[in-house]
Amino acid sequence: MTAQLIDGKAIALETRKALRPRVEALIEKGITPGLTVIMVGDNPASAVYVRNKEKASQKLGMNGTVLHLPEETVEEELIALVKKLNADDTVHGILVQLPLPKHIEEKKVLNAIDPQKDVDGFHPVNAGKLLIGEKAYVPCTPKGVIRLLKTTGVELSGKNAVVIGRSNIVGKPMALLLLQENCTVTIAHSRTQNLSEITKQADILVAAVGKPNFVSGDMVKPGAIVIDVGINRVEDKLIGDVNFDEAKEVASFITPVPGGVGAMTIAMLMENAVEAAENYAAK
Ligand code: NDP
Q1: Spans of all domains in the chain
Q2: Largest separation between any pair of C-alpha atoms in the chain
Q3: Which end of the chain is more exposed for a tag (fewer CB within 10 A), N or C?
Q4: Does residue 1 register a pLDDT over 80?
Q5: Quick check: helix, strand or coil at residue 63?
Q6: Which residues line ligand 1 (CB under 6 A)?
Q7: Do domains 30-114 and 138-262 have the same CATH topology?
Q8: pTM of the full predicted structure?
Q9: Above 80 in pLDDT, residue 128?
Q10: Is 117 a catalytic residue?
Q11: Residue 203 annotated among the catalytic residues of the structure
Q12: Domain 138-262: CATH class, spelled out
Protein backbone atom coordinates (compact mmCIF):
# COMPACT_ATOMS: atom_id res chain seq x y z
CA MET A 1 0.00 0.00 0.00
CA THR A 2 1.19 3.53 -0.66
CA ALA A 3 -0.30 6.01 1.75
CA GLN A 4 -2.13 9.13 0.74
CA LEU A 5 -0.19 12.25 1.59
CA ILE A 6 -1.76 14.73 4.02
CA ASP A 7 -0.68 18.01 2.46
CA GLY A 8 -0.17 20.26 5.47
CA LYS A 9 1.07 23.12 3.34
CA ALA A 10 -2.09 23.26 1.19
CA ILE A 11 -4.40 22.79 4.19
CA ALA A 12 -2.55 25.54 6.08
CA LEU A 13 -2.96 27.88 3.11
CA GLU A 14 -6.73 27.25 3.05
CA THR A 15 -6.91 27.79 6.81
CA ARG A 16 -5.08 31.09 6.54
CA LYS A 17 -7.30 32.23 3.63
CA ALA A 18 -10.36 31.53 5.75
CA LEU A 19 -8.99 33.88 8.43
CA ARG A 20 -8.77 36.84 6.07
CA PRO A 21 -12.46 37.91 6.27
CA ARG A 22 -12.31 37.61 10.06
CA VAL A 23 -9.29 39.93 10.15
CA GLU A 24 -11.03 42.36 7.76
CA ALA A 25 -14.16 42.40 9.92
CA LEU A 26 -12.05 43.30 12.95
CA ILE A 27 -10.20 46.03 11.07
CA GLU A 28 -13.57 47.50 10.01
CA LYS A 29 -14.42 47.76 13.71
CA GLY A 30 -11.15 49.62 14.26
CA ILE A 31 -9.31 46.67 15.78
CA THR A 32 -6.21 45.42 13.99
CA PRO A 33 -5.39 42.04 15.50
CA GLY A 34 -2.03 42.40 17.23
CA LEU A 35 0.38 39.52 17.78
CA THR A 36 3.65 40.20 19.57
CA VAL A 37 6.39 37.60 19.55
CA ILE A 38 9.24 37.93 22.03
CA MET A 39 12.53 36.30 21.22
CA VAL A 40 15.50 36.28 23.59
CA GLY A 41 18.97 35.51 22.25
CA ASP A 42 20.10 34.30 18.88
CA ASN A 43 19.04 30.65 18.49
CA PRO A 44 19.11 30.30 14.67
CA ALA A 45 16.18 27.83 14.51
CA SER A 46 14.08 30.14 16.70
CA ALA A 47 14.99 33.11 14.48
CA VAL A 48 13.53 31.27 11.46
CA TYR A 49 10.33 30.33 13.33
CA VAL A 50 9.89 33.88 14.63
CA ARG A 51 10.40 35.42 11.21
CA ASN A 52 7.82 33.03 9.73
CA LYS A 53 5.30 33.96 12.42
CA GLU A 54 5.87 37.67 11.80
CA LYS A 55 5.54 37.25 8.03
CA ALA A 56 2.39 35.12 8.32
CA SER A 57 0.65 37.63 10.58
CA GLN A 58 1.59 40.60 8.42
CA LYS A 59 0.41 38.78 5.28
CA LEU A 60 -2.99 38.43 6.92
CA GLY A 61 -3.14 42.17 7.61
CA MET A 62 -2.49 41.72 11.31
CA ASN A 63 -0.12 43.79 13.36
CA GLY A 64 2.69 41.26 13.74
CA THR A 65 5.60 42.48 15.83
CA VAL A 66 8.78 40.79 16.96
CA LEU A 67 10.62 42.07 20.01
CA HIS A 68 14.14 40.72 19.90
CA LEU A 69 15.94 40.92 23.23
CA PRO A 70 19.63 40.23 23.87
CA GLU A 71 20.80 36.90 25.32
CA GLU A 72 21.82 38.66 28.59
CA THR A 73 18.23 39.79 29.32
CA VAL A 74 17.37 38.91 32.91
CA GLU A 75 14.18 37.15 33.96
CA GLU A 76 12.73 40.23 35.72
CA GLU A 77 13.16 42.37 32.60
CA LEU A 78 11.42 39.80 30.45
CA ILE A 79 8.54 39.41 32.89
CA ALA A 80 8.20 43.20 33.09
CA LEU A 81 7.92 43.32 29.29
CA VAL A 82 5.26 40.58 29.30
CA LYS A 83 3.28 42.54 31.89
CA LYS A 84 3.55 45.70 29.79
CA LEU A 85 2.16 43.80 26.79
CA ASN A 86 -0.59 42.31 28.99
CA ALA A 87 -1.75 45.88 29.67
CA ASP A 88 -1.46 47.03 26.03
CA ASP A 89 -4.88 47.09 24.32
CA THR A 90 -3.34 46.93 20.84
CA VAL A 91 -1.71 43.56 21.63
CA HIS A 92 -4.18 40.67 21.59
CA GLY A 93 -1.77 37.75 21.45
CA ILE A 94 1.61 37.31 23.15
CA LEU A 95 4.03 34.54 22.35
CA VAL A 96 7.39 33.95 23.99
CA GLN A 97 9.56 31.92 21.65
CA LEU A 98 11.06 28.87 23.35
CA PRO A 99 13.66 27.79 24.30
CA LEU A 100 14.71 30.71 26.47
CA PRO A 101 18.32 31.10 27.61
CA LYS A 102 19.17 28.81 30.54
CA HIS A 103 19.31 31.62 33.15
CA ILE A 104 15.59 32.35 32.61
CA GLU A 105 12.94 30.07 34.10
CA GLU A 106 10.51 29.40 31.25
CA LYS A 107 7.65 28.48 33.54
CA LYS A 108 7.76 31.84 35.37
CA VAL A 109 7.69 33.77 32.09
CA LEU A 110 4.88 31.71 30.53
CA ASN A 111 2.84 32.03 33.73
CA ALA A 112 3.16 35.83 33.53
CA ILE A 113 1.28 35.99 30.22
CA ASP A 114 -2.36 37.02 30.55
CA PRO A 115 -4.24 33.74 29.83
CA GLN A 116 -6.55 35.72 27.49
CA LYS A 117 -3.53 36.67 25.36
CA ASP A 118 -1.84 33.28 25.63
CA VAL A 119 -2.14 32.29 21.96
CA ASP A 120 0.35 29.43 22.42
CA GLY A 121 -1.96 27.86 25.02
CA PHE A 122 0.91 27.13 27.42
CA HIS A 123 -0.43 29.00 30.47
CA PRO A 124 -1.65 26.70 33.28
CA VAL A 125 -5.13 28.25 33.02
CA ASN A 126 -5.45 27.24 29.37
CA ALA A 127 -3.79 23.86 29.99
CA GLY A 128 -6.25 23.25 32.85
CA LYS A 129 -9.24 24.27 30.74
CA LEU A 130 -8.15 21.88 28.01
CA LEU A 131 -7.93 19.11 30.61
CA ILE A 132 -11.48 19.64 31.84
CA GLY A 133 -12.85 20.24 28.35
CA GLU A 134 -13.58 23.96 28.64
CA LYS A 135 -12.99 26.41 25.80
CA ALA A 136 -9.33 27.44 25.86
CA TYR A 137 -6.43 28.50 23.70
CA VAL A 138 -5.11 25.15 22.52
CA PRO A 139 -1.39 24.66 21.75
CA CYS A 140 -0.95 25.21 18.01
CA THR A 141 0.84 22.00 17.00
CA PRO A 142 -1.63 19.48 18.43
CA LYS A 143 -4.54 21.68 17.35
CA GLY A 144 -3.14 21.56 13.81
CA VAL A 145 -2.78 17.79 13.98
CA ILE A 146 -6.48 17.39 14.75
CA ARG A 147 -7.32 19.58 11.74
CA LEU A 148 -5.09 17.45 9.52
CA LEU A 149 -6.70 14.26 10.82
CA LYS A 150 -10.14 15.65 10.06
CA THR A 151 -9.22 16.33 6.44
CA THR A 152 -8.77 12.59 5.88
CA GLY A 153 -12.53 12.11 6.34
CA VAL A 154 -11.82 9.12 8.58
CA GLU A 155 -14.10 8.90 11.62
CA LEU A 156 -11.88 9.49 14.67
CA SER A 157 -14.35 8.37 17.31
CA GLY A 158 -13.55 4.95 18.76
CA LYS A 159 -10.14 4.68 17.09
CA ASN A 160 -7.03 3.56 18.95
CA ALA A 161 -4.67 6.52 19.03
CA VAL A 162 -1.08 6.28 20.23
CA VAL A 163 0.94 9.42 20.92
CA ILE A 164 4.69 8.97 21.31
CA GLY A 165 5.92 11.83 23.50
CA ARG A 166 4.49 13.47 26.62
CA SER A 167 5.77 17.05 26.51
CA ASN A 168 3.51 19.84 27.75
CA ILE A 169 3.56 21.52 24.35
CA VAL A 170 2.89 18.56 22.09
CA GLY A 171 2.36 15.07 23.56
CA LYS A 172 0.05 15.80 26.49
CA PRO A 173 -2.28 18.29 24.77
CA MET A 174 -2.30 16.01 21.71
CA ALA A 175 -3.54 13.12 23.85
CA LEU A 176 -6.24 15.31 25.42
CA LEU A 177 -7.47 16.52 22.04
CA LEU A 178 -7.66 12.96 20.72
CA LEU A 179 -9.59 12.02 23.83
CA GLN A 180 -12.01 14.89 23.08
CA GLU A 181 -12.50 13.25 19.67
CA ASN A 182 -13.46 10.05 21.52
CA CYS A 183 -10.34 8.12 20.59
CA THR A 184 -8.96 5.50 22.95
CA VAL A 185 -5.63 7.10 23.76
CA THR A 186 -2.28 5.68 24.82
CA ILE A 187 0.66 7.94 25.62
CA ALA A 188 4.10 6.40 25.14
CA HIS A 189 7.38 7.90 26.35
CA SER A 190 11.02 7.05 26.99
CA ARG A 191 10.16 4.55 29.76
CA THR A 192 7.53 2.73 27.73
CA GLN A 193 8.25 -0.96 27.31
CA ASN A 194 7.58 -2.91 24.11
CA LEU A 195 6.86 0.29 22.23
CA SER A 196 6.37 -1.34 18.85
CA GLU A 197 3.74 -3.71 20.31
CA ILE A 198 1.82 -0.60 21.35
CA THR A 199 2.31 1.38 18.16
CA LYS A 200 1.18 -1.60 16.10
CA GLN A 201 -2.23 -1.27 17.77
CA ALA A 202 -2.60 2.33 16.66
CA ASP A 203 -5.19 3.33 14.07
CA ILE A 204 -3.78 6.84 14.56
CA LEU A 205 -0.10 7.15 15.37
CA VAL A 206 1.36 10.53 16.34
CA ALA A 207 5.13 10.74 16.71
CA ALA A 208 6.47 13.67 18.78
CA VAL A 209 9.80 12.34 19.97
CA GLY A 210 12.54 14.50 18.47
CA LYS A 211 14.57 11.59 17.06
CA PRO A 212 15.07 11.29 13.30
CA ASN A 213 13.44 8.25 11.65
CA PHE A 214 12.54 6.85 15.09
CA VAL A 215 9.35 5.14 13.90
CA SER A 216 10.15 2.41 11.42
CA GLY A 217 7.67 0.87 9.00
CA ASP A 218 7.35 -2.31 11.06
CA MET A 219 6.07 -0.25 14.03
CA VAL A 220 3.05 0.89 12.00
CA LYS A 221 -0.28 -0.96 11.81
CA PRO A 222 -1.34 -1.55 8.20
CA GLY A 223 -3.85 1.16 7.24
CA ALA A 224 -2.99 3.49 10.13
CA ILE A 225 -2.93 7.28 9.86
CA VAL A 226 0.61 8.39 10.67
CA ILE A 227 1.27 11.94 11.85
CA ASP A 228 4.88 13.02 12.10
CA VAL A 229 5.36 15.99 14.42
CA GLY A 230 9.14 15.67 14.59
CA ILE A 231 11.43 18.29 13.12
CA ASN A 232 15.04 17.18 13.28
CA ARG A 233 17.85 19.02 11.55
CA VAL A 234 20.26 16.49 10.08
CA GLU A 235 23.08 17.85 7.93
CA ASP A 236 21.00 20.89 6.98
CA LYS A 237 17.98 18.75 6.07
CA LEU A 238 14.73 18.53 8.01
CA ILE A 239 13.90 14.96 8.96
CA GLY A 240 10.82 13.74 10.79
CA ASP A 241 10.49 11.24 13.62
CA VAL A 242 8.99 8.73 11.20
CA ASN A 243 10.87 6.82 8.55
CA PHE A 244 8.67 8.17 5.79
CA ASP A 245 9.74 5.79 3.01
CA GLU A 246 9.01 2.74 5.13
CA ALA A 247 5.85 4.00 6.83
CA LYS A 248 4.19 5.20 3.63
CA GLU A 249 4.14 1.59 2.38
CA VAL A 250 2.08 0.53 5.40
CA ALA A 251 -0.06 3.53 6.37
CA SER A 252 -3.29 4.76 4.77
CA PHE A 253 -2.45 8.45 5.30
CA ILE A 254 0.82 10.11 6.27
CA THR A 255 2.20 13.61 6.80
CA PRO A 256 5.50 14.59 5.18
CA VAL A 257 8.33 16.54 6.82
CA PRO A 258 8.61 19.32 5.86
CA GLY A 259 5.18 20.31 4.53
CA GLY A 260 3.08 18.48 7.12
CA VAL A 261 2.45 19.40 10.73
CA GLY A 262 4.96 22.28 10.81
CA ALA A 263 3.08 24.23 8.14
CA MET A 264 -0.14 23.84 10.07
CA THR A 265 1.33 25.03 13.38
CA ILE A 266 1.73 28.61 12.16
CA ALA A 267 -1.78 28.62 10.66
CA MET A 268 -3.16 27.58 14.06
CA LEU A 269 -1.18 30.33 15.74
CA MET A 270 -2.78 32.84 13.36
CA GLU A 271 -6.19 31.39 14.17
CA ASN A 272 -5.59 31.67 17.91
CA ALA A 273 -4.41 35.27 17.48
CA VAL A 274 -7.51 36.21 15.45
CA GLU A 275 -9.68 34.52 18.07
CA ALA A 276 -7.92 36.53 20.81
CA ALA A 277 -8.64 39.77 18.93
CA GLU A 278 -12.28 38.73 18.41
CA ASN A 279 -12.60 37.99 22.13
CA TYR A 280 -11.16 41.43 22.87
CA ALA A 281 -13.61 43.03 20.42
CA ALA A 282 -16.53 41.25 22.08
CA LYS A 283 -15.65 42.62 25.53
P1 NDP B 1 10.45 16.90 24.01
O2 NDP B 1 11.90 16.61 23.93
O3 NDP B 1 9.97 17.87 25.03
O4 NDP B 1 9.66 15.52 24.23
C5 NDP B 1 10.03 14.36 23.58
C6 NDP B 1 9.22 13.21 24.10
O7 NDP B 1 9.66 12.03 23.45
C8 NDP B 1 9.37 12.99 25.60
O9 NDP B 1 8.12 12.82 26.20
C10 NDP B 1 10.21 11.73 25.69
O11 NDP B 1 9.89 10.89 26.78
C12 NDP B 1 9.82 11.01 24.40
N13 NDP B 1 10.87 10.08 24.02
C14 NDP B 1 12.19 10.30 23.93
N15 NDP B 1 12.83 9.17 23.58
C16 NDP B 1 11.90 8.22 23.47
C17 NDP B 1 11.93 6.83 23.17
N18 NDP B 1 13.09 6.22 22.92
N19 NDP B 1 10.78 6.16 23.16
C20 NDP B 1 9.61 6.77 23.40
N21 NDP B 1 9.51 8.06 23.70
C22 NDP B 1 10.64 8.79 23.74
O23 NDP B 1 10.03 17.33 22.55
P24 NDP B 1 8.74 18.14 22.02
O25 NDP B 1 7.50 17.47 22.45
O26 NDP B 1 8.92 19.58 22.29
O27 NDP B 1 8.94 17.95 20.45
C28 NDP B 1 8.93 16.68 19.84
C29 NDP B 1 9.33 16.82 18.39
O30 NDP B 1 8.38 17.63 17.73
C31 NDP B 1 10.66 17.51 18.14
O32 NDP B 1 11.26 16.95 16.99
C33 NDP B 1 10.28 18.94 17.86
O34 NDP B 1 11.25 19.60 17.05
C35 NDP B 1 9.01 18.75 17.12
N36 NDP B 1 8.09 19.88 17.19
C37 NDP B 1 7.49 20.20 16.01
C38 NDP B 1 6.58 21.23 15.97
C39 NDP B 1 5.91 21.51 14.69
O40 NDP B 1 5.40 22.59 14.50
N41 NDP B 1 5.86 20.54 13.76
C42 NDP B 1 6.30 22.05 17.16
C43 NDP B 1 6.90 21.56 18.37
C44 NDP B 1 7.79 20.52 18.35
P45 NDP B 1 10.19 11.33 28.33
O46 NDP B 1 9.11 12.29 28.67
O47 NDP B 1 10.10 10.07 29.07
O48 NDP B 1 11.56 11.95 28.32
Answers
A1: 30-114, 138-262
A2: 57
A3: C
A4: no
A5: strand
A6: 141, 164-167, 169-171, 188-192, 195, 208-210, 229-232, 261-262, 265
A7: yes
A8: 0.97
A9: yes
A10: no
A11: no
A12: alpha beta
CB 201 within 8 A of CB 160: yes
Q: What is the pLDDT of residues 111-126, one digit of tens each?
A: 999 999 999 999 999 9
DSSP result, 183-245: -EEEEE-TT-SSHHHHHTT-SEEEE----TT-B-GGGSPTT-EEEE---EEETTEEE-SB-HH
CA of 133 from ligand 1 middle (Å) equals 24
Kindly give the distance from the C-alpha atom of residue 234 to the centroid of ligand 1, in angstroms, as a whole number: 16
Q: What is the mean pLDDT of residues 41-49?
A: 92
Instruction: Provide mean pLDDT across the span 170-193.
Output: 98
Distance, CA 88 to ligand 1 centroid (Å)? 34
User: Residue 177's pLDDT is what?
Assistant: 98
pLDDT in tens, 52-101: 999 999 999 999 999 999 999 999 999 999 999 999 999 999 999 999 99
Beta bridge partners of 39: 68
CATH architecture of 30-114: 3-Layer(aba) Sandwich (3.40)
